[in-house]
UniProtKB/TrEMBL annotation:
Enzyme Commission number(s) of this protein: 2.4.2.8
Reaction(s) this enzyme catalyzes, per UniProt: GMP + diphosphate = guanine + 5-phospho-alpha-D-ribose 1-diphosphate; IMP + diphosphate = hypoxanthine + 5-phospho-alpha-D-ribose 1-diphosphate
Pathway(s): Purine metabolism; IMP biosynthesis via salvage pathway; IMP from hypoxanthine: step 1/1
CDD domains xrefs: PRTases_typeI
Organism of derivation: Bacteroides nordii CL02T12C05
Descriptive protein name: Hypoxanthine phosphoribosyltransferase
One record GO biological process: purine ribonucleoside salvage
Family: Belongs to the purine/pyrimidine phosphoribosyltransferase family.
Phosphoribosyltransferase domain segment(s): 18-163
Cofactor: Mg(2+)
Length: 178
């Protein structure tokens, strides 16, 4: 399927499953190398990162734990407009090496907010693993150590990412046609 329709929009395939998997394995190997002996706690940010998390973790060979959080958005009063609240974090992360597993970093505001929240809980270290980054849209200074792929500014779906709730199920990544 090279083209898919979701609601009012047409999307065309832009990153094939095999290419995604290759980069996911590369990232897993980098983490295996860098975090050996750290017993990292992977913190998967739902919903978008569920597929990336599953594939990544299959290739993590060092002892590790995995947990899941969700970010609830609500209207805030800061200049960024939207503030995200972390829900579902039951683990004690004090003294732990945490690896945030995200689907995509766009402006970076979401990640910045997550780092602030987690930082107050005294982890030993926080690392970021993101399937995708849009470098041209990044508005905050973030050290994203583990990136599977950098992409241009276009809106994408598939491999966990949605358009209005749909499209998360595709193994490939699709870019909107405008
Ligand atoms: P940020 O706070 O970095 O601007 O936004 C990050 C969030 O925006 C991601 O977690 C994701 O939910 C959403 N997002 C940003 N770009 C895209 C995109 O191209 N496609 C989809 N489906 N979601 C996106
Ligand atoms: Mg996300």
């Amino acid at each position: 399927m090279d083209t898919i329709q979701i609601k009012d929009k047409l999307f065309t395939v832009s990153i094939k499953e095999q290419d995604i998997q290759k980069e996911v394995i590369r990232v897993a190997n980098e983490i295996n190398r860098d975090l050996a002996g750290k017993n990292p706690l992977f913190l998967s940010v739902l919903n978008g990162s569920f597929m990336f998390t599953a594939d990544l973790l299959k290739h993590i060979t060092i002892p590790c734990e995995i947990s899941f959080v969700k970010l609830a958005s609500y209207q805030g009063i800061t200049s960024t407009g939207v503030i995200k609240e972390v829900i579902g974090l039951n683990e004690d992360i004090a003294g732990r090496t945490v690896v945030i597993v995200e689907d995509i970093v766009d402006t970076g505001f979401t990640m910045q907010r997550l780092l602030e929240t987690l930082g107050t809980r005294n982890p030993e270290a926080i690392h970021i693993a993101s399937l995708l980054v849009k470098p041209d849209k990044l508005k905050v200074d973030l050290n994203i150590e583990y990136v599977a792929m950098e992409i241009p500014n276009d809106f994408i779906v598939g491999y966990g990412l949605d358009y209005d709730g749909f499209g998360r199920n595709y193994p490939d990544i699709y870019t909107v046609v405008d």
